[in-house]
Amino acid sequence: MIVTSFPRPVREIEHVLIPLADGTRLAARIWLPEDAEANPVPAILEYLPYRKRDGTWERDALTHPYFAGHGYASVRVDLRGAGESDGLLFDEYAQQEQDDALEVIAWLAQQSWCTGAVGMMGISWGGFNALQVAALRPPALKAIITLCSTDDRYRDDVHFMGGAMLTAKFGWASFFFGAMCHQPDPALVGEQWRAMWLERLANVPLFLERWLRHQRRDAYWKHGSVCEDYGAIECPVYAVGGWTDGYTNAIPRLLEGLSAPRKGLIGPWAHAYPHFAMPGPQIGFLQEALRWWDHWLKGIDTGIMREPMLRAWMMQSVAPATHHDERPGRWIAEALWPAPGIASRRWFLAEQGLRDEASRLAPRQVCSPQDVGRAAGSWCPFGRGQDDAGDQRDDDARSLTFDTAPLDEAIEILGAPVVTLDVVCDATQANLAVRLCDVHPDGSSLRVSFGILNLTHRDGHEAPTPLRPGERYRVTIKLNDAGFAFPPGHRIRVAISTAYWPMIWPSPEAATVTVFSGSLELPVRAPQRADTLLAPLPPAETAAPEPRTLLRPGVVRIDRIGIELGTQGSFDFRIEGDDPLSAVAEMHQTHTVSRGDWRTRVETRTRLSCTRGAFVVRGGVQAWDGDEQVCDRDWNCTIPRDLV
After folding, report:
1. How far is CA 549 from CA 57, 281, 543, in A?
2. N vs C: which end of the chain shows fewer Cβ within 10 Å?
């Protein structure tokens, strides 16, 4: 990663209040060229709830000054109810959030330092709302870059996968609950900081409770899912992500579904911006973004739209591990998506494993121990810790597995593998987890992709129906998109289990599923000479990092503003191998913020357990201003299970 100088000097406006029509003011931090008043520039908006002051400060410093130094006003705005913004925040991706964004974009376009052209960029939450706001077609919004986001909030977000509930929902809800209990900074908002904080503490909801009340794909999840009407998005879209991330499936869908100008970029990365994401190799994402912005916001022909629609990293096989600094591979590209040259190749489940031709399979039963899935890693890895999928051998040994013979030649795939099964279940509810693995000659098993299906959602996610025990069903499980090269001498494995803890919450009872037949379809892509002629992506460049001092483990000081941030927490998932109703998730967080004599502390806790018919949710928040306790709230609620 190279720290660079800029062609234009940059000035920063640390705190600006953007007025909205209802009197609310949203807090912004703006980086722009020093001469922007005399020579106006386009604006790039990143719009988040994570506190521009002390939340996203590390990544903001690497990114926003870079755009400013290359001729843009780069703007970080806190959502209503977050950071130093006025108001209250009650949910993710609310209509209020989108309506406010329309006013922010109009305000930016009217500033004397702005040409009137605005782009929107963000990762995760910021990638979501970039798509959502684009669908509202504000006149000044000329293009977006969306990273690590989704077009479908039910099918491919942190909440559900294949109709099964992801435990990442609990982790995200717990983290976000704590994050929304933070106070604004008195140095920016003055003495009103305490009143603003107390109002937030008194009104913050327990987000987990709200989300658990929507267990099927209803109007709640359709709101903000741009797949409901791709045609609503008319501005150009650059969709970026990584194979290690949890959100990559949206990129091929956006390329296929949108009619506006669009591009896709998929690297090896986890959930982070590609100029500092792991696993590497990192790329010059900021340079690539500038080519996009220069084309669409400044009208400069950078050549970016004459390049292939999709560029992706073809991952090579590696020894399985829960962390990789880098994933070896090579860049490939497709002019269009879906790519006409990708062919479906089918293997059938057979007595001997996976075979090219259909053959006899005696019925196979699977009733997994409830802790199968210990090697699954996180649903959405961030790449900095031990959060990737590890060696699958132990999980494979406790699953139903089908292997090919050792491969005579390499097989490369690009797209979504699909597994079709004919099954019978002895219960009214069951989950199936299906993993696609690369089995090395030494027996180690590298997970390439996986998919989940709650069998009550076999015909769709809007109106699930119980299984009829003993009745035979044909079900299709679409696995996550992947770009991967299976080497000669390795075997391809399909592993099937009825549990995948702690990735998904278990069904209410330990069901036995009998598999009578099935197949695996892989999207096979032959190596192409054109791939070797691709222009290399530039090395990663950034602006200078924000100076910081690690005072002690868990406590860091942002040197420029003198704020000390402390974080401690515990996160625990547990289950008994023979009892799905023993599943428990607990999280406790403590956050401290201080500067001189001023200090605050917030403690939050959440707990999720279940019975056969309900989820049991407990939560609480306590807060202190110095030694004075200013908040003590508790939640205890029971929410009926809806075929989950």
Report:
1. 14, 27, 19
2. N
- Whether a cis peptide bond, with omega within 30° of 0, leads into 502 is yes
Tokens of 305: 């739209």
pLDDT for 359 equals 86
> What is the 3-state composition of the chain as percent helix, strand, coil, each rounded to the nearest 5?
20, 40, 45
Rounded alpha-carbon distances, angstroms, from residue 58 to 54, 76, 140: 9, 13, 29
Residue 187's φ and ψ, nearest 5 degrees, are -65, -20
Query: 241 pairs with which residues across the strands?
Result: 266
- Largest Cα–Cα separation, the chain: 78
pLDDT at 499 (0 to 100) = 98
The closest of 195, 185, 197, 200 to 558, measured between CA atoms, is: 185
Among 247, 302, 296, 238, smallest CA distance to 265 is for: 238
Amino acid at 18: I
Residues contacting residue 233 through CB under 8 Å, at least 6 positions apart: 131, 134, 135, 137, 226, 258, 260
Roughly what angle, to the nearest 10 degrees, separates helices 125-134 and 95-110? 80
Q: Minimal CA–CA distance to 207: which of 88, 92, 48, 49?
A: 92
Encoded tokens for 548: 């910081």
Residue written as tokens 């603003």? 196
- Determine if the peptide bond prior to 406 is cis (ω within 30°): no
As to burial, measured by CB atoms within 10 angstroms (0-12 exposed, 13-18 middle, 19+ buried), residue 448 is buried
Enumerate residue ranges in the chain where pLDDT < 50.
Answer: none
Query: Alpha carbon 635 to chain centroid distance?
Result: 28
Q: Which fold has domain 2-151+229-316?
A: Rossmann fold (3.40.50)
Nearest CA among 434, 376, 448 for reference residue 402: 434
CATH 2.40.170.20 fits 343-525, yes or no: no
Residue 282's pLDDT is what? Answer: 97
Q: Which residue has the tokens 């702005």?
A: 114
d(CA 46, CA 101): 10
pTM of the model: 0.97
Which H helix or E strand runs over 103?
A: helix 95-110
What residue type is 9 in one-letter code?
A: P
| Distance between CA atoms of residues 636 and 586, nearest Å | 14
What pLDDT sits at residue 1?
A: 67
Are residues 370 and 579 in contact, defined by beta-carbon separation less than 8 angstroms?
yes
Which burial class, exposed, middle or buried, applies to 192 when counting CB atoms under 10 A from its CB (0-12, 13-18, 19+)?
A: exposed
Closest C-alpha among 632, 440, 402, 598 to residue 517: 402
CA of 501: how far to CAs of 246, 372, 617, in Å? 17, 6, 19
> What is the gyration radius of the CA atoms in the chain, in angstroms?
25
Summarize pLDDT for 475-526 with one digit per residue, the tens: 999 999 999 999 999 999 999 999 999 999 999 999 999 999 999 999 999 9
Domain ranges of the chain: 2-151+229-316, 343-525, 548-640
